[in-house]
Design a protein that fits this description.
The chain is α+β, with helices and mostly antiparallel strands. The protein folds into four domains: 1-28; 35-147, PAS domain (Beta-Lactamase, 2-Layer Sandwich); 168-274, PAS domain (Beta-Lactamase, 2-Layer Sandwich), CATH 3.30.450.20; 305-464, 2-Layer Sandwich (Heat Shock Protein 90), CATH 3.30.565.10. The chain is built from twelve helices and 20 strands. Strands 7, 8, 9, 10, 11, 12 and 13 form a seven-stranded antiparallel beta sheet that branches. Helix 9 (318-334) packs antiparallel against helix 11 (370-389), helix 10 (342-350) packs parallel to helix 11 (370-389) and helix 11 packs antiparallel against helix 12 (431-443).
């Protein structure tokens, strides 16, 4: 059972508490003093006649009432929007006392005597007597420093995000939940080829959207429209943006819907990856593969011909011819199979195995296409091989002079042997001679001439070069 004395004591305590609360409520001064916002009043001249405890806390001091040196506000300094100290006559209280009109939700910065600053939200109302005469004003203000700090952080965060999105090389844009365009970066504007109007265009900023086969894709069926309708992220399908000038850009879209904290759809973001360079690279790669297949087939055909002719001729030079072909391949590989220098080909095919000074090579730098380079490598190898086995390079006193010049689009090559054994015209054309003549005439479209004079073999060639 409960103790009657305890019950009576509790009732008396509750009654005392109720009376105390009633006195506070009925005493405006006590109620104002305990509010969590700063409140102060000024008379018609701006002298402070009353302020509560919270006002003194926010000011960082408790000024004397009706002090003629402190008018309109009890703060040490008030900082305006231009970050300068505002004169007392420029304060919001002074404005209200001058106009008789209230001021609502004015953000101000108060600086205390110790240098600390806070941001306040002020609401100032004029005070009138029974006859309607302006007699003063009251300011209710609160510290919103933390709110301002968070707002500034959010604003800075949005600014950083905007800068990041502008710096990205990929085209990015956002829409609201209805698909209305809200933002796009410079890369998107460049991809589209024009500047769409924010808030007017829907789902995508492209002038026109096409499928890869050229079929027109309506904007309301584009990937972003589908992503927002189905509320799911998509990858692709690949599409083509047609610009107002008629140029087209293939792209891959990555639309993603955005949801709020309540799970409701609030918009979408899309990233468009320009596939132009990838398409160009793919086409180039396909071309390179086709070209490589063509060159491999030609090389195999050349090797097959060399093997057959060598076996029939019985001169045992197959390995040397294959090595010469390989050296020209190396030259072309070093230059991405675009060209080979004639001087390098001459050094690689003529000089190996020959004593220094017995071969003189003279001529300007001439870049040969792969087809001409391979044929010239085989021709020079045959001439050098014949000179080593039968001609000038087969004796210690013999020498060879190889020179060339370019006249317009014609390459003139001169091969001259001297100091070797006496030469007589052959009774039949050997494989080497036939290879030289056939390569220059058939493969290079040139004019070969081989003279077997007593002084030594003299071969000249006129070969047309491509533009």
């Amino acid at each position: 059972m409960s103790n009657p004395a305890d019950a009576n004591g509790g009732a008396r305590s509750a009654a005392v508490t109720s009376l105390a609360l009633e006195r506070i409520v009925r005493s405006p001064a006590t109620l104002v003093e305990n509010l969590s916002i700063g409140i102060y009043t000024c008379d018609r001249d701006g002298l402070i006649v009353q302020f509560n405890r919270r006002a003194a806390e926010l000011w960082g001091r408790a000024p004397a009432l009706s002090d003629p040196h402190i008018r309109y506000c009890g703060a040490f300094k008030t900082i305006d929007r231009d970050c300068r100290a505002a004169a007392p006559a420029e304060s919001v209280m002074a404005q209200v006392l001058a106009s008789g009109e209230p001021v609502r939700d004015r953000e101000l910065i108060l600086e205390r005597e110790d240098g600390t600053r806070i941001t306040i939200l002020a609401n100032v109302d004029p005070l009138f007597d029974e006859q309607g005469r302006l007699v003063g004003g009251v300011n209710c203000f609160q510290d919103i420093s933390e709110v301002v700090r968070m707002r500034d952080q959010m604003r800075e965060g949005r600014r950083v995000v905007r800068h990041v999105m502008e710096a990205l090389p990929a085209a990015i844009y956002t829409t609201d939940a209805d698909g209305k365009l809200q933002y796009f970066n410079t890369a998107a504007e460049n991809l589209w080829g024009f500047t769409p109007k924010i808030g007017e265009q829907f789902w995508c900023g492209s002038w026109k959207i096409l499928l890869p086969d050229g079929t027109l894709l309506p904007h309301d069926r584009c990937p972003m429209a589908v992503a927002l309708k189905e509320k799911r992220a998509l990858v692709g399908p690949e599409a083509v943006a047609e610009r107002p000038d008629g140029t087209r850009v293939p792209f891959m879209p990555y639309p993603t819907p955005l949801f709020g904290s309540d799970g409701e759809l609030i918009g979408g973001v899309n990233m468009l990856i320009d596939l132009t360079e990838q398409k160009r690279a793919d086409a180039q790669q396909r071309g390179l593969i086709d070209e490589l297949n063509h060159r491999v087939k030609n090389t195999l055909a050349t090797i097959q011909s060399l093997a057959a002719q060598t076996l029939r001729g019985g001169d045992g030079e197959f390995e040397g011819r294959l090595l010469a072909l390989s050296r020209v391949h190396d030259q072309l590989t070093r230059n991405a199979w675009e060209w080979a220098d004639l001087a390098a080909i001459a050094r690689d095919t003529v000089l190996p195995g020959v004593a220094n000074g017995r071969v003189r090579i003279e001529g300007p730098s001439v870049r040969l296409t792969p087809r001409i380079a391979l044929a010239m490598g085989m021709v020079l190898h045959e001439l050098a091989s014949n000179a080593s086995r039968h001609g000038a390079l087969s004796t210690p006193a013999g020498s060879v002079a190889l020179a060339w010049r370019v006249d317009g689009q014609i390459l003139h090559v001169d091969w001259r042997e001297e100091g070797g054994p006496a030469v007589a015209p052959p009774t039949r054309r050997g494989f080497g001679t036939r290879l030289v003549e056939r390569s220059v005439a058939n493969e290079l479209g040139g004019h070969p001439s081989i003279a077997f004079s007593a002084a030594g073999v003299h071969c000249t060639m006129e070969i047309p070069l491509p533009e």
